[in-house]
Specification:
The protein has 772 residues and is an alpha+beta fold. It folds into 4 domains: 211 residues, no CATH class; 179 residues, no CATH class; 194 residues, no CATH class; 155 residues, no CATH class. It is 54% helix and 20% strand. The protein has 22 helices and 21 strands. The strands form 3 sheets. A 6-stranded mixed beta barrel has the order 3-4-9-6-8-7. A 6-stranded mixed β-barrel has the order 13-14-19-16-18-17. Strands 2-10-1-11 form a 4-stranded antiparallel sheet. Strand 13 and strand 14 form a beta hairpin. Helix 7 runs antiparallel to helix 20. It is elongated, with a radius of gyration of 34 Å. The two termini are 39 Å apart. InterPro entries: ABC3_permease_C, Macrolide_Exporter_MacB.
């Protein structure tokens, strides 16, 4: 036999099923939002870990001089599990009439990679002569299988190759972020292009996770072993370095999304509490009658507990699949954009348990305050007051001006709790959207500054024995070339205490006009201050916020020297970088070799073909080329991915606000039937009813817009500081503008109309007899 209190709970739910549905929807949306964000974090990290395991990702990469010797002896080094030698070649491939920089990897169809495994599709034969393109490269350059491209290898004649298939290589940074294309050729194809099959890269995996000191020891022992075979290691790279940009972007996105999601959840909780208040306030008389008949507080709590447990069960069963679907598609998008791998549809056990707990805790906490308030109301007062028991009675004024147009505002202001929660939800979502529009302005301003850093038009990586002065003088005589400079850019290792870091060393003229660095601390290179360097801010941070005046040890090959830090410049999203005067560099290594040529060209000219023809005439080998315009566009892709993700959350929270506002307006229709009936009986048209509710909706939306503008300023400040610190180690520029505020004002008015139109339509269509 079903207990009476359970029957009473079921009867109340049936009686107020509309309000109950609104509460369930509100709780489900709140929990789904926070669950989706937390599960997205779980799915991303799981996808990253699984793909590292499935591909047997290299934990250490050694870049070496060409060799053909057997290196299996490296597996005897304590801590090394596997080693695999590979051949990687720099090349340029002409696609759609323009040369693009590529890294080509030699592979064998008979002996697939065991470390950094790749998935291939296409004509995979041991003697295949075609080119396989990595998936993100194929998409970036808009190529298709069967297309033909021209490949230019350093020192070799240009040849035509067909694209025979695609490769999934999750170890590669997407081409649109790196600017590099990735291709794969069989050893037979390389020989056909005139290249000798010799290895120059070694991938290594460890037996278990290693500390920094253990890794350094393994690297030194591996170098020593290779040295006995006359193999020189020019650079080492840990897996963390290749994944750094992608992990940084995702961690920045997820951190900000979770913070915003928690705030949205708290605001949603306030709304749910208010909705419970609305239900309980209509049961004051019933509860007072129960108390007169002897019902205790314990009995009434049991009665409500049935409803709350039912709510919790329904919320849990609906929010888990909803949040799972949202997190799956969002993490799938993120993982694909960053070329990390594939996402499986799974749900975190921890997030599942948290969702289960919150599904029951949230309704109970939200309902506890209204229920407790009702239980404290004296029985006599409860029997007299049938609704709105918590509102203090106000003195009536003898004279009051009234106009029908003000009725909408009065109705909105009467329910202050509902007004507050609606305004907060809408304003927070709107503030995120306004802040994201401002962030886009900040992005443009920041990128404008970054674009001013490189003050030239084109660059070439070259191999030549010609003197620097002769190169520059000859280039500047080419029609269309205004100015030229020659640099040396190479990899180096810096040491501080026991830690070592890979850096990109730029040997540049101390008085160069080709870069305009933003000095954060200290000063730029000075000829009068020898043995000094300038470092980027991201290197400064990775070294523990090192300051100007401190010293670093730089190692190139077997040469080591200590240098004093003269200045710190703003990062350019190129990783840890050092700038050194060419004079100091030449004196240190006794080497005037240059490998980078840069030019400023006439604004009306495109001199690429002229310069490259001159290179060919002088037997200068071209390894790579790039346009500054393309270099400057790549950081924009990274930051935009973060901004678009935040914008998605702003739209999601705003959608929740619209739904909650529609819910509140629908409840208003239920509660104000008699008021609507009186207006209709006095001759009020259906248009007046529409005017009443739509006016209320616009008033609420207008208030939310004001708060959105106010909240957006500190929110934009926080987001620009966080995003800037993570990516550039300094805040983005202030980019607040009137456009975002005005745009959201227009949307706010539309939201107010949309959220109130359908409830108004329901009210206007009801018969007068039903309303009264």
């Amino acid at each position: 036999m079903i207990p009476i209190y359970m029957k009473k709970a079921g009867k109340d739910l049936t009686k107020q099923k509309t309000r109950a549905i609104f509460i369930l929807v509100s709780i489900t949306i709140c929990l789904s939002t926070i669950g989706a964000l937390l599960n997205t974090n779980y799915l991303f990290n799981k996808a990253l870990q699984q793909n590292l395991e499935n591909t047997n990702a290299a934990e250490l990469t050694l870049y070496t001089s060409p060799f053909e010797e057997d290196i299996s002896s490296l597996e005897k080094v304590d801590g090394i599990k596997e080693v695999e030698a590979k051949q990687q070649i720099r090349a340029r491939i002409k696609i759609n009439g323009e040369f693009r920089n590529f890294e080509l990897m030699a592979y064998s169809a008979n002996k697939p990679f065991q470390i950094n495994k790749i998935r291939t599709a296409g004509q995979l034969t041991p003697s295949g002569q075609g080119l396989l393109l990595e998936k993100s490269t194929l998409e970036q350059f808009k190529q298709s299988i069967g297309d033909h491209v021209m490949i230019s290898l350093p020192g070799k004649q240009t040849k035509e190759l067909s694209i025979d298939g695609t490769v999934e290589d999750f170890y590669r940074i997407p081409t649109r972020l790196s600017g590099l294309g990735y291709g794969y050729l069989t050893e037979d194809a390389l020989e056909n292009l005139g290249l000798i099959s010799s290895k120059n890269l070694i991938h290594v995996t460890f037996e278990s996770s290693k500390s920094e000191s253990q890794v350094n020891k393994i690297i030194q022992e591996a170098k020593a072993d290779l040295k006995t075979k006359n193999i020189t290691v020019s650079r080492t790279e840990l897996s963390e370095e290749s994944l750094f940009i992608r992990e940084t972007v995702v961690n920045a996105i997820l951190l900000l999304l979770v913070v915003l999601g928690v705030v949205a959840f708290l605001l949603g909780f306030l709304l749910i509490t208010h909705l419970f208040y609305r239900i309980v306030s209509e049961q004051v008389m019933e509860l007072s009658i129960q108390k007169v008949l002897g019902a205790t507080s314990y009995h009434i709590w049991k009665q409500y507990s049935v409803t709350l447990i039912l709510f919790g069960s329904i919320v849990f069963l609906t929010s888990v699949p909803l949040s799972g679907a949202i997190s799956f598609y969002f993490s799938k998008f993120t993982v694909q954009e960053l070329n990390i791998g594939k996402v499986e549809f799974t749900y975190s056990l921890k997030v599942l348990i948290l969702t289960l707990i919150l599904s029951f805790i949230v309704p109970m906490l939200a309902a506890s305050y209204p229920i407790q308030k009702v239980l404290k109301i004296p029985v006599i007062r409860g029997l007299k007051n049938t609704s709105r028991p918590f509102v203090k009675q106000k003195k009536k004024h003898s004279k009051r001006y009234f106009h029908f147009r003000f009725l909408s505002i009065r109705n909105a202001m009467i329910k202050k709790g509902q007004l507050l929660t609606n305004v907060l939800m809408l304003s927070f979502g709107g503030a995120i959207i306004i802040a994201c529009i401002a962030l886009n302005n900040s992005l443009l301003l920041t990128l404008k500054d970054m674009n001013q850093f490189l003050n030239y038009d084109r660059e070439w990586s070259i191999q030549t024995s010609l003197p620097k002065e002769e190169l520059i003088h000859s280039l500047e005589e080419i029609n269309g070339v205004e100015q030229a400079e020659a640099w040396t850019i190479r990899n180096a290792i810096i040491s501080q205490s026991s830690s070592k870091h890979n850096v990109l060393l730029n040997s540049v003229p101390a008085q160069t006009d080709f870069i305009h660095p933003e000095i954060l601390e200290g000063h730029w290179l000075d000829k009068q201050v020898p043995n000094s360097i300038v470092i980027s801010s991201d290197l400064s941070q990775s070294l523990g916020n090192i300051k100007t005046g401190d010293s670093l040890t730089i190692q190139i090959g077997i040469e080591e020297k200590q240098w004093k830090i003269a200045g710190i410049v703003k990062s350019q999203l190129k990783g840890p970088t050092i700038y050194m005067s060419q004079t100091d560099y030449i004196q240190w290594l006794n080497n005037e070799h240059i490998n980078r040529l840069l030019i400023k060209q006439d604004s009306k000219s495109d001199v690429q073909n002229k310069v490259e023809n001159w290179f060919n005439d002088k037997d200068i080998t071209i390894e790579a080329s790039d346009k500054v315009e393309d270099i400057n566009s790549r950081p924009e892709e990274v930051i935009k991915l973060i901004i678009y993700s935040l914008l998605f959350v702003g739209i999601l929270i705003s959608s929740v606000g619209v739904l909650n506002m529609t819910t509140a307006m629908s409840i208003n229709v239920l509660e104000r039937k008699q008021e609507i009936g009186i207006i209709r009986s006095l001759g009020g048209s259906k248009g007046k009813i529409y005017q009443l509710f739509i006016g209320e909706g616009i008033f609420i939306a207008g208030m939310s817009w004001v708060f959105s503008v106010i909240i957006s300023y500190p929110l934009h400040t926080y987001l620009s500081e966080r995003i800037g610190s993570i990516l550039l180690n300094s805040p983005l520029h202030s980019g607040m503008s009137l456009n975002g505020s005005l745009l959201w004002l227009g949307f706010s008015i539309l939201i107010g109309i949309f959220a109130s139109f359908f409830p108004a339509r329901i009210a206007a269509r009801q018969p007068l007899t039903t309303l009264l």
